[in-house]
Queue: 4 jobs
Job 1
Amino acid sequence: MDGKIIEGNEVYALLICLSILLFASIVVSQPIPADKSQVEAWFNGIIKPVKERGKTLDLELVQAETEPRIIKSVPSGNAKLVIISIGPGSYKEKIRIERNKSFITLVGDPKNMPNLTFDGTAKQYGTIDSATLITESSYFVGANLNIVNTAPRPDGKMVGAQAVALRVSGDRSAFYNCKIIDFQDTLCDDRGNHFFKDCHIHGTVDFIFGSGTSLYLNSEIFVEGDPEGDPEMAVITEQARQSSSEDTGYSFVHGRITGTVKDVFLGRAWKSSPRVVYSYTEMDEIVHPGGWSSNRQPERGDTVYYGEYKCTRKGATPATLEKFVKQLSDAEAQPFLVLDYVEGTKWLLPPPTVPN
């Protein structure tokens, strides 16, 4: 064979070159900083516009971002970015963005945010379809919006009084600077990868629920008390993972838990294997000393994945937490502290601004 023999140093150099070619377009998702003041710079350093990182993003997203349109309605099968600017004021209507209408962005003015309202209840529509805003499509973005269900607060007596403000059922959906407001079942974080940043979520019981895989960054959770006074009825999350083989769960990082009630549970085991982690979270003393609930089913303590990592303030009480709650090590917390938790480096873009 009349071929050239490649020496050891040349093999090493060749491997280095191949490594550069293979990994040049991959963004490494660095952990969210422990110092909250550094989070914005961290985020802006990774999540840059399409022109600066097109090769690292989903191809269909890059194509959709080419020649975006600002229009009043969206056709079925949409494959281009559509930005819908919503002016100040209140809009009472039920909004549903169907699965075949991807790449839609709803954006309001951060200085005068529009109110999207409706008063649907579970009795009228079923729980998940009672939402004021329902997003079923992929690559949805909502920014600077007040999303509110104005149905009366459940009194513990009326059947079907629970009501949803927002249901997110599409993959790769992001919300920036949104207020999501209701009482019971406020946010149906239904399915898919989702990202919430600088949001405010207001509710009473089970008000972040579903089978989503979601990262909540720098977001405030405000809890109101339940009028019936049942201590099991002041609950933030009801994540619906049913087995350890399901790759779903909620990660809350650098948030704040506050409210007007005592003995709030951070989550309860509605299904057998929920996964919820709070990291660097400021917890007011409203949090129950035990922190979490097995939903009065002790056997679920063996199957839940409830974790905390370096949380602060009076509500963070590691010594009194239920035995099934994990105080995570640095290594255990790492997967919940990166954008890769929601595959974010492939699809997240900077928050949209109001078009000129």
Job 2
Amino acid sequence: MDKKRGAVRVHPSRPVTPVAPPTTRRGAEHHKVDLKGHSESWLRNHIAVCKAALTKLLGTPVATMMTVAVLAIALTLPGFLFTVLSNVQSLTEGWEGETRLSLYLETSLGDEDADRFSRSLLLRDDIAAVDYISRNQGMREFKKYSGFGDVLDALTDNPLPAVVVLLPRSRAVADLGLMRASFEAMPEVNEAVLDLEWLQRLDAMLAVAKRGVFVLGLLLGLAVLLVIGNTIKMSIESRRDEIVVSKLVGATDAWVRRPFLYTGVWYGLLGALCAWLVIQVAWLMLETPAQELTQLYRSQFQLTGLGVSGSSLLLLSSVLLGWLGAWIAVRRHLRDIEPS
């Protein structure tokens, strides 16, 4: 007995075995994704987008190197000036160990009176040490180090005054100023000079220079921001059709924005690395002349470059500027690209 469509053909010699109908699933299936799987998927996507952004930059080496060169120049100038000021400041800090006050005595004062005056200063509680330099001793040292010995020998009188060098116990600026004023009021003293006054002026100039470098860094940082933003804008315009298609298939703004943000980060990182390399080469060129100069002054000072902290600050600030410039450009121009 035969039956059509769905019936079972029965033969007397065979037992009948029921056949279960095939299970066919239709429609979407629901899968539960845990937090770990979501995190791994998010990380894989970011790594893939980061690699793709670098590959795209390397695919246009000329345009990429031109942009990176502009960024490197803008980052090199404030970084180099910052290291110069740091070296000058560290050099002046080594000279502030002992503050000395030099008293130039009246030329009419005899050697015995000048020596007696210097001995009387030892009785003062605010003075730690006194060094007396007579007129003849000062002339001998001046002939030795000035190179004008023949000219000075032709003089009939010694024009140099006796000098008393004092080491004050206090290093406060206010106390030193009062001490200097009190010594200048004495009849034996022609002039009182604080040896570190020029260092104080230098510190004031360094403070102004630091503020100027900070302002210059802000301006050049703004230039880096604008350069990266304009570059990302051009990249967005060149990929307008791709962005439209991505939004048509349901891509979110965050997904579309991600490649451009990584492009900005790569621009900032490459620019910072080139700037760091230029600064290091500049310091290598200055190292030998600086050592020769310090040897002439019998100093142990050595030039220091950016160091770990300066290099880290340069890299982090450049990467942050790259990301921020890309984010501003994408936020401004991405909203204008919508599927019609």
Job 3
Amino acid sequence: MRLTPVLDVDALVDDPGTGIIVCCGSGGVGKTTTSAALALRAAERGRKVVVLTIDPARRLAQAMGIEQLDNTPRPVAGVRPRRGRSGGSLDAMMLDMKRTFDEVVEGQASPEKAKQILENPFYVALSTSFSGTQEYMAMEKLGQLHRQAQAEGTYDLIVVDTPPSRSALDFLDAPERLSGFLDGRLIRLLLVPAKGPARLMTAGFSVITGALTKILGGQMLRDVQTFVAALDTLFGSFRQRADKTFALLQTDQTAFVVVAAPEPDALREAAYFVDRLTDDAMPLAGLVVNRASPSARTELSAEAAIAAADTLEASDSSSLTAGLLRLHADRVRIIEREQHLRERFAASHPQVPTAVVPAMAGDVHDLDGLRAIGDSLAQQA
């Protein structure tokens, strides 16, 4: 007997009030494949969809028949309307976090100021390797796509595949962390020589800059100060944009789908994310448990199979049959373990709609594979 409500995927993607679907969860649980499958299903059911992925392995590009994804949405060929549906389309893109950061700077600063920022060595390091930059830029790109969709009507559904973070919570925390860094005390302190009169250059400040010079080196400190001075006019913009995107994620037009594997760590991370979404008043559509072991479809328990194998081996009977019985027992135990983990999650989160997707025989490498996943998700309801 099912303990939790069923995630109705078709109702989710068909709802015209749903404009954004965010697939989130820990790394390695199939977020990219789930995002692509949802996007394809929505497009074939008549929605104008763009899917934004952050996928180092670039599997999505291969599955969608696109030679290379980049920071620009590109049409996916081969979308087939479902019976009675028409007008759908699907574009796909892959986040380029540095290019997105560059676009923010270019859109907010004068050409001269933007050039000064983009060529600064500290900016290059910040835009490519600062902790949280990828997560922040994923949300920035989401904001850009949403504004474009609102202004031009290009899309009526945006599907976002969140970054493969160390923690699923990083996606929500990164905008505040990055904007807080850019608006922090140290950054403001570094602005003093560029903004303030000479009388502000106190002995105390000289001591601080002297210490920073020893730690960072004189050239790097000058690069940081030059960068900060050039970026000063954009500080408010960063925080404002982060706040707007965060607010967008809290609206009814957004739906979060938490993706997990039937493993303890992945479901624990999913539970953290569900709790966080609830605390932040963000709309949770449900949970997808991906790559679940198919049902054994037999009443032969693991214990009975082991006992039968022991009997066969003791009587010097067929070792092949005994081996098959032990393999069956192992499979049943895996299925029981996964079922126990799902039931434990459901017991602590009984109101979270859930879909369970069986593991496929091979890797998804084409649109038919994505359709199969979409069909499996929809068959839950």
Job 4
Amino acid sequence: MHRNIVFQQDNVRAHTARYTQQFLEQSNVQVLPWPALSPDLNPIEHLWDYLHRRLDCEDHQPQNAEDLEHSLLHWNAIPRHFYRL
């Protein structure tokens, strides 16, 4: 259906399991080669780290999904270098 898509994943054990690899091959999913032990190469990892650190600084820690959404939506200022190409 989407022939030009390349799937990106890190080398987490569940992603490299034989069953997972076989499924991706049988499904003709093109996977981006990923160096071992290099999750820091994935740009989203830096954003997750930033968001986690911001949440740790909150006076009121989110207790549920609604609290978390409220915190994330009201920050207004995630530095551009986290999402700019």
